[in-house]
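User: Can you help me understand a structure? I only have the sequence.
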Amino acid sequence: SDAVGQKGVRVNSLENLRSWVTGADAHGLQVAIHAIGDEANDNVLDLFAEIAAKNGPRDRRFRIEHAQHLTASAIPRFAKQKVIASVQPYHAIDDGRWAVQRIGPKRL
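Assistant: Let's start by predicting it. Here is the structure, written out as tokens:
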């Protein structure tokens, strides 16, 4: 990639997200989190799995907005965890202008 070690910009800490999402889920809200990139999506999938186990089974409809640039192992996790992967097809075209240079062909 063109920025080795760059992990993107985390707007909220995982600790805050854990607290907010746990509470929202416990009150029956359908939670959506915006995450772009392999690490961000893996973190959110981990968080959703943890909270679903803690709060118990229900029709929660967790959603990740802009689920893109994923690890290969993340893709089946969406189905297994019943997490909605909200994707915007336009980004596949738009990201194509810079994605290979930015994140490298192995991560694309």
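Now, to help you interpret it: The first strand starts at residue 32 and ends at 34. Helices lie at 14-26, 38-55, 74-81, 89-95, 99-103. Let me know which part you'd like to focus on.
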